[in-house]
Every structure is written in C-alpha cells, then in structure tokens.
Amino acid sequence: MYSVPPKRQRGERAGLTREQVLDAALDLVDEAGLPSLTMRALGARLGVEAMTLYHYVPNKDALIDGMVERVFTAASPPASPRGDWRTYLRTYAHDLRRVLLLHPGVLPAVVRPAVTPATLDSVETGLRMLRWAGFPLGMAVDALNSLTLFVLGHTGAEVGISSASGAGSPDWLAGLDESRYPLLLESVRTAAGTDDAARFTFAVESLLAGFAAQLAAA
Question: Theoretical Cys-Cys bridge with 69: which of 42, 116, 136, 166, CB 3.0 to 4.6 Å?
C-alpha cells in the first residue's frame, strides 16, 4: 500500500516514487476497473497534478506495463541451481494466483507482453531455473508460458464467476432436469469439484507431472 501525500503547491516536488504511483494505479483499477484509469484520475488519487505523473511513467501504456510488472515481480520466487524446479513453479503459480486475486482489476491487462526490465527479469529467472534443471530452452519457454496462461485463465474465471443466482450458478444448475444431467446435479448437491483452490492445485500438479514426463522423454 502507499500513503497519499498532501496536495502539493506549484513548483513543489511531488515526493512520490514510481512504486507508489503503480500501486495507486492498481488500487484504482481494482475499485473502478481498467477503463477508469486515466492520468487525471490517478493524479487526483495521489494528490498531484496529472502532468506530475509523467515524471514517473512516460505515458499510459507505460503505466499499465508497470502495473503488470508489479504483479509478476510479486510472484517471482528466487531461483537457485540447487533448487527443485517443481517447487519453484508451484510457488510461482500459487503466488501469481494470490496476487491476481488481490488485484483483479489488472487481469484484462496481464496478457500484455513482458516489456519492462523488471518483468523481463522475472521471466529470465524462471527460464534459468528450468534450464538448470535440464529443460531444453524451447521446452522451458513452453512450460513457463503454459503455466502462466493457465493461472491467468483460471484466476480470470474465478473473478468472473461472482453471481450466486444467475445462469450457471449452483441455484441455476439445481433446476436442471436430473434425468438428463444426473452427474452435474450430484456435483451441485455434494459440492464435488467446486472448490476453486482445490481445482487450481489439482491442475498445477497435473501440469508439473506432465512437464516432468516431457523432461524425462527428452
């Protein structure tokens, strides 16, 4: 979190950091959505003129890239040539989901390519960990990308499924014809397979097992 400085006078330094600006932008999009993000709105939130923000980010695209950077760097564990690649990827996946659930407003932007040095450093760290474990470079890129895209998709679905009574909800499913959908209705009654965290863990472990099999075959 950041502390909002008092409204500065003309000619007075803002006293902000780039990190404070990016964190304030994350909070803004969490509250009002990505379309609400403007330099004017962000400046008002921080108590500065919009033009002041250009000292920290050159334009709105750079601001969004910086928000993506904050998400991925927060979910990038340290790598070690003596570490276990499964533990590394498992930690990365769960941390990325956790950060995205904290900042769901940035989800529409996280599919942007990694462009900031800090975001690229996170990618390089993950690839280095896999290369140390013996993954060929192409397989390492595929594994890291596949896991990342799964986390983004799963978390996006978790955030999007928020209605308790609309189409697709448990209440809605309970009204289906049981003679046609007996297994779906049993799942609703028993809550089998309905825990998001458990499903996420199951899928991550399945991906890791598949990566291990591919590595062994290579």
Answer: 116
Task: Please count the other Cβ atoms lying within 10 Å of the Cβ belonging to residue 108.
Answer: 14
The per-residue pLDDT for range 155-167, each reduced to its tens digit, is 999 987 654 567 7
37 CB neighbour count, 10 Å cutoff: 20
Kindly give, in sequence order, each residue whose CB lies less than 8 Å from that of residue 101, ignoring residues fewer than 6 positions away: 155, 158, 159
pLDDT digit string (tens) for 188-201? 888 888 899 999 99
CA 100 to chain centre: 4
Among the listed residues 29, 24, 27, 33, the one whose alpha carbon sits nearest the alpha carbon of residue 56: 24
Q: Provide the residue count of the chain.
A: 218
Q: Give the pLDDT confidence of 140-187 residue by residue, as tens digits.
A: 999 999 999 999 999 999 987 654 567 777 788 888 999 999 998 998
Query: Do the beta carbons of residue 37 and residue 29 sit within 8 Å?
Result: yes
Alpha-carbon distance of 182 to 179, in angstroms, equals 6
pTM for the whole structure = 0.86
CB 126 within 8 A of CB 92: yes
**124: amino acid identity, one letter:** E
Tell me how far apart the alpha carbons of residues 185 and 192 are, in angstroms, rounded to a whole number: 10
Rg, C-alpha atoms of the chain: 21
- State the residue for tokens 């209440």: 171
Task: Give, rounded to a whole angstrom, the gap between the first and last alpha carbons of the chain.
Answer: 45
Phi, psi of 8 (to 5 degrees): -85, 155
